[in-house]
Write a structure and sequence with these properties.
The complex is a heterodimer of chains A (374) and B (285). With 374 residues, chain A is of the alpha+beta class. Chain A contains nine helices and 21 strands. Chain B is 73% helix and 4% strand. The chains are: A alpha+beta (374), B mainly alpha (285).
Chain lengths: 374, 285
């Protein structure tokens, strides 16, 4: 499991002349172990698809190296890299049926017809497309084309499977079902996969590690749990998590046995010095300006807490989202009970120090998560 | 459309008929002329009632033109053969050169690629006569005057830009990812070009080839200036019917009928592709 399947080192991607064109990927370093599922997560234009296409060999690498199985492959043609890819636009061959499209991917592997048939049948079953195997791409829906395209990639026995938004067009129920099946399929066969997505649920559910990208820069590359609990910077903190993390800029002051955060509108959060570890306190005291972050799930209502006024109270069927006006901004709470608060009602809010994420006010880099240094 | 009244239908039919008659009448009249002698053609008033004669066609096929001043040798069948040879060869060459070039222009944007593509297109803007004078001189120096090779080369001015621009539009319409999907499955770019790009752009290539064929076939001025009688196509060959003893309208008409037939047959056969190719070229160009 520890063998490195892919090693990306110091990769830059410019569209247009190097150093003058659009800088789509900046100094990217990543390693993918054999048998691992990696998700490249980010919004449109963050460089995730460019990265995937550089790995596939469809985009030239402007600078840096990409290695697979210990060989530098960045100058290799796609055919030499032994990778499989599912395309966001499906890209099925129009003159072939779905079955032929999927079986076609095995053509170069010279398997016997019976083995091919068997593999195609099992993929069709996996992706719930058995009933459309004889149809042509132009006569099936986008979701069906997407599954056919995914099948064409998964059926191959490649060193690396690249999946570009593999489930974007599927209905929610089907997506949830296939997420589990595909993960099982990949793990069972020990395949290595990189998936590009802007859907964090998909990334969390499928990936062993998530690479969060923004503006061409890799923000954080870690397990889903670590990304959620210990975001490396303000971007990752606010990008990952639904509803997003509440953030407030704050001034910081402390004396002997207290630590105080001064928010807008004169709101003051006072904590005991012992609420933070010695190291965290020392780091915090070096600064005068920080950004406080807290996940909506961690915000508690309590009598005698800091005052906030309810602006929105929504029951979503399994949880309540409450948005409140707090310190000149919005503080969102998530509660699992069905609560009915009146709009305009005053509530007290308590922010547990162990749930606080503190980020540097200038760089946005994480300083501490609860008791621990970032 | 379901609500169209009978009156509307009738009016539409009449309007369409008028258009069809307007455009088809000259062709129809020439067709009639080709079965008449000069006397009936020139009779005033003209009449559609006449005794049809095959003498015009006979003269063309035998190559003996009988006029008041005696019998002339005409090379019409040779001209027809030249037309077929020149057009087919020119289009074939233009396809061999133009389709890969169109693919390159569609798939690889490099510095100046638009300029090169536009320069190639601009060959179609220049009036042929403008090009002809210097070309005549060059051809004499190079020994290309009055050779099939020289003519086919010049015909590339007609065929190549047309094929390049129409086919390029078709290639651009094909998602590059379809080709990537094929390449990543273990095929070279050349195999991808042959197995994916070419078949998918097939209708466009057919349309472009057909259009180029028609344009090449109809060309007059290049062959008139750059070749002598035995290399000239029908468009120029038809001049032979303007003789010292008069214009042989009947033979001209039958020559036109014979020379239009191949392109007409081709166009009818590939009508669907042709319309598609033309409209796409118009939008994409």
């Amino acid at each position: 499991m520890s063998e490195t399947a892919l090693f990306i080192k110091g990769v830059d991607k410019f569209y247009g002349p190097i150093d003058h064109g659009v800088h789509a990927v900046k100094q990217l370093n990543m390693d993918v172990k054999k048998g691992e599922i990696i998700a490249l997560l980010g919004s449109s234009g963050c460089g995730k698809t460019s990265t995937l296409r550089m790995v596939a060999g469809f985009e030239a690498v402007s600078r840096g190296t990409i290695s697979m199985k210990g060989r530098e492959v960045q100058t290799f043609a796609p055919v030499k890299r032994n990778v499989a890819m599912a395309f966001e636009g499906y890209s099925l061959y129009p003159p072939l049926t779905v079955r032929e499209n999927i079986a076609f991917a095995l053509k170069a592997s010279r398997l016997s017809q019976s083995v091919v048939d068997e593999k195609v049948a099992s993929i069709a079953k996996l992706l719930e497309i058995e009933d459309i195997m004889g149809r042509y791409p132009s006569s099936i829906s986008g979701g069906q084309q997407q599954r056919a395209s995914l099948g064409r990639a998964l059926i191959r026995d490649a060193d690396l499977h690249l999946l570009d938004e593999p489930m974007g067009q599927l209905e929610p129920q089907l997506r949830a079902l296939l997420r589990g099946r595909i993960k099982h399929f990949i793990k069972e066969r020990g395949l290595t996969a990189i998936l590009v997505t802007h859907d964090q649920t998909e990334a969390n559910a499928l990936a062993d590690r998530i690479a969060v990208m923004e503006g061409g820069v890799l923000q954080q590359f870690d397990t889903p749990q670590m990304i959620k609990e210990r975001p490396a910077n303000l971007f990752t903190g606010t990008f990952v998590g639904e509803p997003p993390m509440n953030v407030f800029s704050a001034g910081i002051s402390g004396s002997g046995d207290t630590v105080s955060f001064g928010l807008n509108d004169g709101v003051k959060l006072d904590y005991k010095a012992s609420d933070f570890s010695h190291e965290v306190r020392a780091e915090l005291m070096k600064r005068s300006k920080v950004v406080l972050g807290i996940r909506p799930y961690a915000v508690r209502r309590s009598e005698g807490g800091v005052g906030a006024k309810v602006a929105v109270n929504q029951w979503l069927g399994d949880q309540t989202h409450i948005a409140t006006d707090f310190a000149g901004g919005t503080m969102v709470l998530v509660e699992h009970d069905r609560t009915n608060l009146a709009i305009g009602e005053n509530v007290g809010i308590r922010l547990d120090p162990s749930s606080l994420h503190v980020f540097d006010g200038d760089s946005g880099k994480a300083i501490s998560h609860g008791q621990e240094l970032a | 459309m379901e609500t169209t009244s009978t009156l509307e239908k009738t009016l539409r039919l009449i309007a369409l008929s008028l258009v069809v008659i307007f455009f088809m009448f000259p062709i129809f009249w020439i067709f009639l002329m080709s079965f008449q002698t000069n006397e009936t053609i020139l009779a005033i008033p003209p009449s559609v009632i006449f005794t049809p004669t095959l003498s015009n066609y006979a003269a063309l096929i035998t190559g003996k033109l009988t006029t008041a001043a005696g019998t002339l040798d005409i090379a019409f069948m040779r001209n027809l053969g030249n037309s077929i040879f020149l057009s087919v060869t020119s289009v074939a060459l233009a396809l061999v050169l133009g389709v890969p070039a169109a693919y390159a222009f569609a798939r690889h944007k490099f510095k100046g690629s638009e300029d090169i593509a536009f320069t190639l297109l601009s060959f179609r803007f220049a009036p042929p006569l403008l090009v002809l004078l210097p070309l005549t001189q060059y051809f004499q120096w190079l020994g290309l005057s009055d050779t099939y090779f020289g003519l086919i080369w010049v015909y590339q001015l007609i065929c190549l830009p047309l094929i390049l621009w129409i086919v390029r539009g078709y290639f651009e319409d094909i998602s590059a990812d379809v080709e990537y999907a094929y390449r990543i499955a273990g095929h070279s770019w050349f195999a991808t070009f042959r197995k994916i790009a070419l078949p998918l752009a097939g209708p466009g290539i057919a349309a472009a080839g057909l259009l180029a064929f028609i344009f090449a076939w109809n060309n007059f001025v290049f062959a008139l200036v750059l070749a002598s009688a035995d290399k000239q196509p029908v468009t120029v060959g038809a001049l032979a019917f303007v003789t010292s003893s008069g214009i042989q309208y009947g033979q001209i008409a039958s020559a036109i009928v014979l020379s239009v037939t191949p392109t007409l047959a081709l166009a009818l056969y590939a009508q669907r592709y042709l319309v598609e190719g033309l409209s796409l070229g118009a939008v994409k160009g």
